[in-house]
């Protein structure tokens, strides 16, 4: 890159806007993912779990009883 | 476990798959972006007509591929919602809409910034630019629809219908430069008779295309995971309210 010529401001602005928009999208997506994981973990910590997660599978052969831990 | 798409129909299996793939995709995206940007600025030559402004092409065109491809994903997911009632179809569609909207925003802005020095104007109401603006508005409409209807199943079906109606815009965008007189140049990469761009410019373009595609898949997987968890949280919160009401 020796120089961006007379239209450098347009090129720089295009890259700046593109990467700012994609950066905001990435941060927002990661923040939402983290928020949902935190909310789910918080609910499960309080003993509120999905039925499929709470019930042992019928095929299970273990005699050990699971306790809330 | 043998891999198949039907395995991923189960949200829990999908979450396991996404958790394994996301770190690798993040690395791949970073490498492709790094190589693509290096090639775009330090390897690719200036264009004989457009000069240095051709470097805007390396973000504008890949954004266009992803912005339109994302709508294809939403349209296929809409079919999955309405016909096959695939459990992840409307999750995929809902997660894709903000990503598609952002990439389409990038197309519009970088196109305007490329148009001013080349055409002498930021905007003209020709078929290509207007149909792309319609695509952006369609994405915003889908996002608004999902926000407006609280129950995910109903929201998914309503959005699927809108998405399928809006899919008619895709061929209009693609062929607008052939069907009407536009300021926008005709297709020069995705053509039946092959690209008309020199390989010195085409290679960085494809690398940036790969980078944007990898970024799209990465963000889509993360957004889908977040949406699945959001629905689980919603169910658990309803369970919590029901338990509190019984107590």
Question: Your description of this structure?
Answer:
The complex is a heterodimer of chains A (69) and B (247). Mean pLDDT of chain A is 79; it is low at 59-69. Chain A is mainly α and 69 residues long. Chain A has helices spanning 8-45, 51-54. Chain B is mainly alpha-helical and 247 residues long. Chain B has one domain. Helices cover 76% and strands 0% of the residues of chain B. Chain B has helices at residues 11-43, 57-84, 89-119, 127-148, 152-166, 169-179, 199-246. Chain A binds chain B through residues 1, 3-8, 10-11, 13-15, 17-18, 21-22, 24-26, 28-30, 32-33, 35-37, 39-40, 43-44, 46, 48-50, and chain B through 41-42, 46, 51-53, 55-56, 59-60, 63, 98-99, 102-103, 105-106, 109-110, 113-114, 116-117, 215, 219, 222-223, 225-226, 229-230, 232-233, 235-237, 239-240, 243.
Quaternary structure state of the chains depicted: heterodimer
Globular, elongated, flat, extended or rod-shaped: what is the shape of chain A?
Answer: rod-shaped
Summarize the helix and strand pattern of chain A as letters: HH
- Overall mean pLDDT of chain B: 91
Proportion of residues in β-strands of chain B:
under 5%
Distance between the termini of chain A: 59 Å
Structural class of chain B: mainly alpha
Keywords:
heterodimer; A: 69 residues; mainly alpha; rod-shaped; B: 247 residues; 7 helices; 76% helix
Quick rundown:
The complex is a heterodimer of chains A (69) and B (247). Chain A is mainly α and 69 residues long. Chain A contains two helices and no strands.
List the helices and strands and how they pair.
The complex is a heterodimer of chains A (69) and B (247).
Chain A: H1 8-45, H2 51-54
Chain B: H1 11-43, H2 57-84, H3 89-119, H4 127-148, H5 152-166, H6 169-179, H7 199-246
């Amino acid at each position: 890159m020796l120089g961006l010529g007379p239209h450098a401001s347009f090129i720089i602005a295009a890259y700046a806007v593109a990467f700012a928009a994609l950066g905001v999208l990435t941060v927002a997506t990661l923040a939402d993912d983290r928020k949902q994981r935190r909310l789910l973990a918080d609910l499960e910590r309080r003993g509120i779990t999905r039925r499929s997660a709470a019930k042992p599978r019928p095929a299970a052969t273990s005699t050990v009883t699971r306790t809330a831990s | 476990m043998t891999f198949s798409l039907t395995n991923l129909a189960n949200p829990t299996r999908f979450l396991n798959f996404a958790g394994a793939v996301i770190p690798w995709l993040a690395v791949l995206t970073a490498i492709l972006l790094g190589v693509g940007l290096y090639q775009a600025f330090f390897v690719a030559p200036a264009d004989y007509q457009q000069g240095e402004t051709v470097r805007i092409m390396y973000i504008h065109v890949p954004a266009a591929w992803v912005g339109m491809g994302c709508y294809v994903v939403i349209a296929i997911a809409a079919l999955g919602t309405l016909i096959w009632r695939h459990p992840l179809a409307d999750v995929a569609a809902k997660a894709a809409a903000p990503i598609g909207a952002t990439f389409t925003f990038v197309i519009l802005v970088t196109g305007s910034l490329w148009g001013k020095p080349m055409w002498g104007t930021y905007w003209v109401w020709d078929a290509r630019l207007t149909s792309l603006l319609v695509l952006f508005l369609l994405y915003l409409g889908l996002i608004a629809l999902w926000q407006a209807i609280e129950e995910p199943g109903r929201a998914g079906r309503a959005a699927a219908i809108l998405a399928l109606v809006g899919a008619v815009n895709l061929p209009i965008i693609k062929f607008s430069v052939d069907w009407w007189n536009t300021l926008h140049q005709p297709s020069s990469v995705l053509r039946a008779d092959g690209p008309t761009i020199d390989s010195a410019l085409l290679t960085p373009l494809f690398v940036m295309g790969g980078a944007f595609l990898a970024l799209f898949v990465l963000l889509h997987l993360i957004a889908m995971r977040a949406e699945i968890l959001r629905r689980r949280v919603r169910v658990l919160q309803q369970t919590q309210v029901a338990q509190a009401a019984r107590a």
